[in-house]
Structure formats: C-alpha cells, structure tokens
Amino acid sequence: MVTTRGQSKGEPTSEPTPTHKRGRRLKSEPKKKAEATPKNSEIKTEGEEKSTVHKKDEKGKEDEEAAEEPPSKRQRVGGRDVPDVYKQGVIERGHIYFFYRPRVQLEEAHSLDEVRNFHMLLIPRPPEFMTAAETAQGSTGIKGKADPEKEEEAEMKVLEPGADAVPSSAPLEQAKQKYRLITIGKKRLPDPEKIGARGGRHKEVFWGTVTAQGDNLDELRSVFGPKEYSTKTRGVRHEAACRLAGRGAYAIVNGAAPTPSKRVTHLGYHLSHPPPEEMGEVQSDLGIAIASSFVVQVKNPLAPATGPQAPRGKGADYPERLMHDVFGSAEGGDKEPTRGREGYGLRFASCETIELMDFTHAQLLMIAAKPGEEGLEESLGEGRGEALSKLEEEESKESIQRVFQELGEEVKNRPAEALEGQWI
C-alpha cells in the first residue's frame, strides 16, 4: 500500500474502483440492496455500462497517481496537511565576491577598525554541465545534432561527483546577470574553529542582510563606487570606493532530513583569488578563509529581534504563501499557526527555497560550520566540496584583470592590493 507524507500507517489510500465485465458482479463484491428505478430513468445499455466502468478505471488510476505523489509536495505539520516547499540538494551555485569599504572620510583602511561595511556578493550561475551540453549541441551548426566528442564530454561532466555544485564560467563584461548583495553585520565572517559568545559547543554566528538584489550588475557601480553626501552638522562627507578582498565559487545545499525540524541549509565556498600563498592580513582580519562553510537560517520578519547583534530594521516583505508554507504563520481564516507556538509561526527556518533570499531586507543568521576543504566537503556532501576545490584550483590561474572584468570593471578603476592580501 502506498502512503504519502503526513499519512498514518494504518490510513487507507485511494484504491482503483473494481471493474465489471458485461455487467456481472465480481464474486468478492457484496450484493447490493436493490433500489427502485425512477420513472423517468433509462436502463443503461451494455455499451453505456462499459463507458461508466472505463471512467471508474481512469479515476482509480488518478487516485493511485495522487497517492504516489512525491513526498516533497506535501507534509504533515501540527496534524494538518500543508504544502512543502523544501527543495533538497543544491538549490543554488555561482561565484562569490567579498568587498569592504573604508570608514567615512578615510581614503584607505589599514585594519578592521577602519572598515565601515563588509559585503558578500553572490552571482548565481547554471551548472557547468548544462553549459557543456549546450556547447555540444551548437558545435556542429546543425540544429538537433551535436558533436559526438563534445557530447560525450558533457555527459561525463554530469556523471562526475559534485557536478551539480560546479558553476559555469563567469562571463566577461556582461551586465545582465542576477546578483544578491549581503551586508555582514560584524564586518567579518565567523571563525569555525572558535567558540561563540554562548560558550559550550556553540559556534560563532553572524547576521547578514540582503541589502540589494537585481538582474543588472551595472546597478552595483553606485553601490561599490565612491560616494559624497551632505549633513547639517558636518557638511560634505566622503566615502571611498569598495575594495575587492576575495573571489571564489559557492554552493547552497539543503540536506536530507527525516523531519522538518532537522532540516539544515549549508552555504559553502572555496576561493580562487587570492590563492593560498597570497592570503594576507586583509583576509585574516575579515575572516575570509580559502574554504569554509556556514549553516544558513532565515529569520521570520514578523518575529521580534532578540540579541544585541540582531538586525532591528525592516525585514523582508514575503508574500503570504511563503510566510505560511515556510514559517507556518496563520493564514486567512486560520486561528493558529501550523508551526511554532506564536501566531507568526517559527522564528527561524532553513532556506527551504532560494526564493527566500531574493527579497531585499531578508535577514540571514549564519552559523560557522566546518573549516577548510575537508569541512567544506563534509558540509556540502556527495563530492561537492571536492568539486569546488578542484574548480577553484583551476580558476586561480586566471588574472586579476579577468576577475574585475567578470564584474564589468577595469582593474585600473579599482584598488587591487586587497585581492593580494594588503590593506588599502
């Protein structure tokens, strides 16, 4: 018997309606009590009865298909059957960039104390094997016919462990790209090897807020460029341009979990620039490692802020369906939430769908997970960490000029010393 998520073991599922042949009852079918035939009713012919049976058969098949619906579609929460938006596996991969901006009125920063903002830029990319497949299809110039060698190469990439976490190459000077800018609250990443403020086994944590998102990198020039503004008390104030301090590849992965409360989202990255031998004081002070990973939780915008580091500003304006399906908040005529004890539902949730990070003001709690390449593989699993390490070892051979071109910039227009480990 097929059961669906949220269905108790003893609960019967929909079964196909027993069929008849030429109007004769099956032996196992109980005899029905005769019913009076209405005056205006007509007796069905043999053909009409077959048609009725056929429809019953089709309905039975539909019931079976509904019973076999993938468990990711529905879930049982609080005794109720609700939609399940959780997407298991890699929900996004791409390239990651770390930037910092010196404090107001400073042209340069020479320590963390002189840093005003620290940003993490995520630019999603399709998996590399998809790009390889498209290249194979277009290599012959004949629609629907691929080069056999390139097609075989593309198929091998799909079969490689961790292939779903490997992003395709970043295009050069292409403005039309989706991006997500996350501003880090503590101006540095947490150290996975340090104990957090709560002590015990608790890891360091940090808050991140999605301060900008869009689909055109040209919009970032005003964000990262120099700024001037006037104040009534101090007159004209100047902010120097942001400095690029790191570049690499990342993947966001939702792990398998037996229950919703056990779900965990990991964001892991591996740097290509600077390479290990050029990592310097800048990366050390900002907490940027060659490879690392974090547990990501999304804060419910309706939940009150707690803790000294928690963002106090406006949260993301999520639609009602996400508030209900992810956080379990009361919806429509619901008097009680489907999750949590408060009316707003859960305070935090795993990043069940990447859509949660596509809203400005989204608040993310990131908890240090595992350091180094081994930790990256342990967090992402299934060869993904190793695949990112291999990719970035190759991409580290690219020039710094190319890295800036990925962002539609020229290296002459941006200070590059920080990407070589030096404060500037």
UniProtKB/TrEMBL annotation:
<feature type="region of interest" description="Disordered">
    <location>
        <begin position="1"/>
        <end position="81"/>
    </location>
</feature>
<feature type="compositionally biased region" description="Basic and acidic residues">
    <location>
        <begin position="381"/>
        <end position="391"/>
    </location>
</feature>
<feature type="compositionally biased region" description="Polar residues">
    <location>
        <begin position="1"/>
        <end position="17"/>
    </location>
</feature>
<protein>
    <submittedName>
        <fullName>Uncharacterized protein</fullName>
    </submittedName>
</protein>
<feature type="region of interest" description="Disordered">
    <location>
        <begin position="376"/>
        <end position="396"/>
    </location>
</feature>
<feature type="compositionally biased region" description="Basic and acidic residues">
    <location>
        <begin position="26"/>
        <end position="62"/>
    </location>
</feature>
